[in-house]
Automatic annotation (TrEMBL):
DNA-binding found in the keyword field: yes
One function term, GO molecular function aspect: DNA binding
Annotated Basic and acidic residues bias: 246-262
Protein's UniProt name: Winged helix DNA-binding domain-containing protein
Keyword presence, Cytoplasm: no
PANTHER family cross-referenced by the UniProt entry: LMO0824 PROTEIN, WINGED HELIX DNA-BINDING DOMAIN-CONTAINING PROTEIN
InterPro entries reported for this sequence: AlkZ-like
Domain of life of the source: Bacteria
Region named Disordered: 246-267
Keywords (A to Z) from UniProt: DNA-binding
Length: 370
């Protein structure tokens, strides 16, 4: 139970605290590697969204900055939290990949009957041997593994390798850093060092709070996909500051982390598809109201791009480029005030210039709410 002196944080206070850590109260002039480190990774299920996510957070961001960090290996794209692809710093990937393994092992359960005959003790070394010969696409990996294990489902073989062998994706000169069908290589080969032997769960929780706090154990579990977040936060309790949310649930935070006043202005911002901010908490009211949350994901589980006004997700957005005209369409959840439309239009035009630098015209259009 919470003690009587525990401070209660409103939804707006949680919103501003999280936005401050997510570089969304003001663009900051830091390197892309420092930004990704402060965010403790960026969801990168597709290659394009991190470019937009960094553009909306960094002062003077250029796509070449992210390309350079991928090619100098200070950033990697690899399977991490929730068994999804993330952009991570080389140091964070090395430090926290081992902590992810229990969750990744558990994800194999989705294979069901397709896992018949799958023996990780022989498949994993076989996959490592193939990848030591050089980077390969997963189409190539499945075919080669199927030759060695003809009685095992090829998709099960590929999925097991994705989850149980630490891999990174090999960047290219494609516009968004990776082709549609990317090659993978062994993480220890690419980075020159294997993942840390220790799981570093406590350090991971501290980094989560630095990027997304104040937060509950359930929030941390939602973000990471890992069990045991509550036990780690209990171990860390003496060094953390407790809070309560508006429903009396216990939240944890770093004592010196930024917690701006809830009335701190929050600028109009556009978040890309799959942005980690909208996926990092069990209770997402600090970003999006419960009644709008069903609009966040499509039937095939794509996480839509949202725009922020006064710090909260107020609708979804999409772009179109035809005949040298770049169009951004806003689909608000509810009618927007005039000053919101004006601010979003200015920000949206800048976004279009980043996305489509060759456009002769940019158009920001607001659709009917819903």
């Amino acid at each position: 139970m919470l003690g009587p002196v525990t401070e209660t944080l409103s939804i707006r206070a949680l919103n501003r605290a999280t936005l401050a850590r997510q570089l969304l109260l003001a663009r900051e002039a830091v390197s892309v590697a420092e930004a990704v480190g402060r965010l403790c990774g960026m969801q990168a299920q597709e290659p394009k969204p991190p470019f937009l996510g960094l553009w909306t957070r960094l002062d003077g961001f250029a796509a070449s900055d992210l390309h350079a960090a991928l090619h100098d290996r200070s950033l990697v794209r690899a399977t991490m939290m929730r068994a999804t692809l993330h952009l991570m710093t080389d140091a964070d990937y090395t430090a926290f990949r081992t902590a992810m393994q229990p969750m990744l092992d558990g994800a194999l359960r989705v294979l069901g009957d397709r896992a018949k005959g799958l023996d990780l003790d022989v498949v994993v070394p076989a996959a490592r041997s193939l990848l030591q010969e050089g980077p390969r696409t997963f189409n190539e990996m499945r075919a080669l593994l199927q030759e060695q294990f003809p009685d095992v489902n090829d998709r099960a073989l590929g999925y097991a390798v994705r989850l149980c062998v630490p891999l990174v994706m090999v960047p290219t000169e494609d516009r968004w850093g990776f082709p549609r069908t990317s090659q993978f290589t062994l993480a220890d080969t690419w980075l020159g060092t294997p993942p840390a032997a220790d799981a570093a769960m406590d350090e991971l929780m501290l980094r989560y709070l630095a990027a997304y706090g104040p937060a509950s154990a359930a929030d941390a579990q939602t973000w990471s996909g890992l069990p045991g977040t509550g036990e780690a936060l209990d171990r860390l309790r003496p060094s953390l500051r407790p809070f309560a949310d508006d429903k009396g649930r216990e939240l944890f935070d770093l004592p010196d982390a930024p917690r701006p006043d809830e009335d701190t202005p929050a600028p109009a911002r556009f978040l890309p598809e799959f942005d980690s901010l909208v996926l990092a908490h069990a209770d997402r009211r600090r970003v999006i109201a419960d009644e709008h949350r069903p609009s966040l994901t499509t039937k095939n589980l794509r996480v839509r791009a949202v725009f922020l006004w006064d710090g909260f997700a107020r609708g979804i957005w999409e772009t179109e480029y035809k005949r040298k005209v770049a169009t951004l369409r806003l689909r608000p959840f509810e009618p927007l005030p005039r000053d919101a439309v004006e601010s979003l239009t200015v920000e949206g035009e800048a976004l279009l210039r980043f996305l489509e630098p060759d456009a002769k015209e940019t158009v920001v259009a607001v659709a009917d709410e819903g």
